[in-house]
Sequence to fold (501 residues):
Amino acid sequence: MDSLNSLLDGFGTALTPINLLWAALGVLLGTAIGVLPGIGPAMAVALLLPVTYGLDPTGAFIMFAGIYYGAMFGGSTTSILLNTPGESAAVVAAIEGNPMAKAGRGAQALAAAAVGHFAGGMIGTILLVVLAPTVAALAVDIGAPDYLALMVLAFIAVTSVLGSSRVRGLASLLIGLTIGLVGLDSMTGQQRLTFGSLQLADGVDVVIVAVGLFAIGEALWVAAHLRRTAGEAIPVGRPWLGREDVKRTWKPWLRGPFIGFPFGAIPAGGAEIPTFLSYVTEKRLSKHKDQFGKGAVEGVAGPEAAASASAAGTLVSMLTLGLPTTAVAAVMLAAFQQYGIQPGPLLFEREPELVWGLIASLFVGMVLLLALNLPLAPVWAKLLRIPRPYLYAGILFFAAVGAYAVGGEALDLVVLLVIGLIGLGMRRYGLPVLPAVIGVILGPAAEQQLRRALQISDGSLTGLVNTPFSITVYAVVALLLAWPLLRRAVTLRKRPAPPKG
Fold:
């Protein structure tokens, strides 16, 4: 009941005209910046951090929240229309959203994503209000073996589900893990795969990898085949979801948040793992399995709802523990410290107006995001009417700008081109791109948790499976690996025996 009263007070703060203006401005800026390939919410918040020096803390964080959600949706917009994710959480949206766009259903994919973000954000924020203390307590008890198990589950799930060949999926994952090794060893300080370059000592930024594999790889692939294919504009299609689309998406919209929120709330969580797991879940449960990979709307709705709910979950550990689980949360933590505020268990007591005003503004931001982006879905979809030479030239330009903005180093552009060529080669030989991105994102974290778990257990491998949670997750991993063999065995058993003679 105290949470409800505090939330009502928070709405009193968030619904003041000036804070409504900051929320609307944040959503608009976030969406606009998110639509640019390679510039995700973390970069948007970081770039706009100096702008908020003159604002009071409450207004600044309300604006940050709007930027966060707006940039997440903007990232999925380019992911769907151009196969160019604006940030890592939008990677999964490209798998089904881009084939939908190419089939003339880009506006429907964007509408499914917009409603998914709204549903995920609303349910996630309600869970934030109700479950924050409980989830924070559970997150404290999760150790290194549990994190490692979750990451192994993500690796296996993404390589098993995507593409026609597990071997190709594994090869793609290994490419990503190798790129993730570039830089300094976090424990010994030794350089790995830097080729003597000091600029590579910090590793290759995930934004550069995602933009290189998706945007540059896609642009080069299209350029290589431009003369062989017709250059006709892709039809935009009708702007709204039909009855059949709604029938197929309402369950994924409701399932996604309950997958996304817990992963956002635990340290080392974020939106990457739950979006993949949501996609896997929808593929397993769908009655239209044959459409997956060709433009299944469920594959957009579920992961987008999971991503939005994960953003709300991220705020749980950031506000209650002072522990950022994503790049955006890390930037917001720096912003808190800029104002002399330290997030943690006492934050709700010391700064109730700020915290509950921020949480209430999440609800307001969701409504503004839906109101802004549903009418704009056909407008964004008209990007596909731009002639492809101009369109992909623009993608290359913005991709280069986004990559250069990451570190301001000319070497980043060289790395971007090299990774783009790798992306071109992967498309040429049928390797799925997504496992490589997952390897880059989660590989370094998985290595760190593995070494930490082994240190705790004095090098004993039993230290990797010494908790009920990790044992349960590895059982799920074993089931995922064994399922195709079991299904094949059942199919062979059911197959009628050939007639004798």
The CA atoms of residues 334 and 340 lie 10 Å apart. Residues 228-233 have pLDDT under 50 and may be disordered.
